[in-house]
Specification:
The protein has 324 residues and is an alpha+beta fold. Helices cover 28% and strands 20% of the residues. The protein contains 13 helices and twelve strands. A hairpin with a 2-residue loop joins strand 10 (241-250) and strand 11 (253-262). The longest helix has 14 residues, at 308-321. The chain binds flavin-adenine dinucleotide and iron/sulfur cluster.
Length: 324
């Protein structure tokens, strides 16, 4: 690991002032469960770390109007156990409890969870691929068992976060702070960027910006939700495929639906065709299967990840049937 300095900001304004204009030179550290691993493996070598966990504006869960404000530095365990989250946005609690292990959820924050870097093994082993500024994707023709089946290319990473699909399904937004007190609000479905938009980055944050807070509208009255995560083994792991699903039924018919998938695309993937297939229908074996099939329309699996197509189809179907 390279030497680095550690500079504890007194305020959020102080923190943004320390960040600078170049990605990678200065790094924000929250729980450090991802960043410190990257530094030890020499994937990241920031000259300075700026911790944010202690900043007041970035902590805790509040109810404001018809929604929640969740500080980006709130540990995942506090999101899982928070009564307001459980009642007003239960889908988020269901997804957050699926992250890693109790230790990861104790240290890891919700902001770090959605800003974490990809798990592609070429990236993590420091191959000089697109993500590291190189000119090739080694997974495209190499070991691509866990890579994208949707929206892939030129990089085929999948977005690893469990909370991101739930937050997108809930219609959450990110409050972002920049230098000099500048702020912007970005809907989460515009927060993540595909490799075609920017092959080096996974979100719209500029080097001098901090994700301060997530603004999460209450789930629609009467809605039901579930988060289903498929892994290579039952205990901690990243999703091979995950489905955040939320439906509202009126007289037994789906009147409103959100289906967002993780682990299958470089960004949390909103399955609009699956939503269209199930909207206006009763939740039955037949209609849920049709929605599952629609969810993977346009999938382009690589040589070793074709299994993800039927897996995703079945996971969408199972998620929907569990809400009937
Ligand atoms: C063994 C293990 C298992 C894991 N399993 C899962 C899993 O099952 N599901 C899952 O989703 N994740 C998993 N993770 C990934 C991840 O480490 C955690 O989910 C955690 O939430 C990351 O949060 P953190 O606060 O530790 O982030 P950090 O490591 O502090 O930061 C991660 C990245 O986000 C940036 N960042 C952090 N906070 C902010 C902010 N407020 N604004 C801007 N940038 C920010 C950092 O600069 C860094 O690049 C796992 C990690 C490990 C080591
Ligand atoms: S999928 Fe992305 S991170 Fe992995 S080798 Fe290809 S370019 Fe690199």
């Amino acid at each position: 690991m390279e030497n680095f300095s550690y500079s504890r900001p007194a305020t959020l304004r102080d923190a943004t002032a320390q960040l600078g204009k170049e990605h990678g030179r200065v790094a924000i550290i929250a729980g450090g469960t991802d960043l410190l691993g990257e530094m030890k493996d020499e994937l990241a070598a920031p000259a300075r770390l700026v911790p944010v966990r202690h900043l007041r504006e970035m902590q805790g869960v509040r109810t404001v109007g018809a929604g929640l404000r969740i500080g980006a530095a709130t540990p995942l365990v506090d999101v899982v156990e928070n009564r307001a989250v459980q009642e007003q946005a239960p889908l988020l609690a269901m997804a957050a409890v699926k992250v890693g292990t109790p230790a990861i959820r104790n240290m890891g924050t919700i902001g770090g969870n959605i800003c974490q870097r990809p798990r592609c093994w070429y990236y993590r082993n420091n191959y000089p691929c697109f993500k590291h500024g190189g000119s090739a994707c080694f997974s495209a023709l190499g070991e691509n068992d866990f890579h994208a089946i949707l929206e892939g290319g030129p990089s085929f990473i999948v977005h690893p976060s469990d909370t991101a699909p739930a937050l997108v399904a809930l219609g959450a937004s990110a409050r972002i702070a920049g230098p000099g007190g500048r702020e912007r609000i970005v809907p989460l479905d515009a927060f993540f960027v595909t490799p075609r938009q920017d092959v080096r980055r996974e979100n719209v944050l500029q080097p001098d910006e901090i994700l301060v807070e997530l603004q999460v509208p209450n789930a629609p009255a009467g809605s039901r939700a579930t988060y289903v995560k498929e892994m290579v083994r039952e205990t901690w792991n990243f999703a091979l495929c995950s489905v955040a699903a939320m439906v509202t039924l009126s007289n037994g018919v789906v009147s409103d639906v959100r289906i967002v998938m993780g682990g299958v695309a470089p960004v949390p993937y909103r399955a609009l065709k699956a939503e269209a297939a199930i909207r206006g229908q009763r939740l039955t074996e037949t209609t849920a299967a049709a929605a599952g099939a629609a969810a993977v329309e346009g999938a382009r699996p690589l040589a070793k990840n074709g299994y993800k197509v039927p897996l995703t189809q079945a996971t969408v179907k199972r998620a929907l049937l569990s809400l009937a």
